[in-house]
Design a protein that fits this description.
Length: about 240
């Protein structure tokens, strides 16, 4: 999806733009605070930017509501904080060491950083472990999800991993390239499988049309419930 930026009250606001067969411009605020806009193909970009800018107050209020709904974890990125991994919360422990390292145990995520008071170093350690876990686990999740496509002929996709703010995954169908958000590894396995199935389905239907939704209904009848289960984890995209 194309991403655009408009200035609202001196701040840059990014939004995702999708052209659809609709009559009017529509704006939506996702649970992670990201702004999405659907527009008729005939509407010029400057008109869409003006439309988004005019919704500034609504966008601000919606994001404030989202922020208030996020559990307050003042110590989230420090000793005693908690982070979900595979949907199960683990306690964060932080010790001082010469290098940035992280190790996942059954009940805790142990971090070693040169400065235990540095949120930047703690965040780097967490992201490093999430990267390792993603590269180890997501190919297995994708392989399981691919079994749902046994009646279809889809190519084996190339995988990559990134820390993304606005989405859990993406698919470049023309190059059979799937990218997973590293933070997806924090969510329950059924949510990871939903995202994997969603992105694989884009190899067949590279949009979010009714045809795509019908395919998802066929492949994973409970996909809407899984998507709903995924929404509360959106706060991770802002905190990490």
């Amino acid at each position: 999806m194309p991403r655009r930026i408009v200035e609202i009250d001196g701040e840059d606001v990014e939004y995702e733009l999708t052209y659809k067969q609709v009559k009017n411009l529509n704006l939506r605020i996702r649970s992670d605070g990201c702004v999405t806009v659907s527009a008729p193909c005939s509407v010029p970009l400057d008109r869409i930017d003006e439309f988004v800018a005019a919704q500034g107050d609504m966008i601000k209020r919606a994001r404030e509501r989202i922020e208030r709904s996020v559990p307050r974890r003042e110590f989230y990125l420090g000793e005693g904080g908690r982070i979900p991994i595979f949907g199960r919360e683990r306690e964060i422990t932080v010790t001082k060491g010469s290098r940035i390292e992280a190790t996942l145990y059954v009940e805790r995520l142990a971090l070693t950083v040169p400065d235990p008071t540095s949120e930047e170093q703690i965040r780097a350690a967490i992201r490093r472990e999430l990267s390792r876990l993603s590269e180890k686990s997501m190919p297995v999740v994708l392989e399981e999800a691919a079994k749902r496509f046994y009646e279809y002929s889809i190519p084996k996709p190339r995988l990559s991993y990134r820390c993304m703010v606005g989405k859990w995954g993406s698919c470049l169908a023309s190059e059979a390239q799937i990218t997973f958000n590293k933070f997806l590894i924090c969510t329950p396995p059924e949510c990871m499988e939903y995202v994997a199935t969603h992105e694989l389905a884009h190899l067949l239907v590279p949009n979010h049309s009714p045809v795509f939704h019908g395919l998802m209904d066929e492949l994973m009848p409970d996909w809407r419930a899984r998507k709903k289960q995924l929404e509360p984890y959106g706060y991770l995209l802002r905190l990490l």
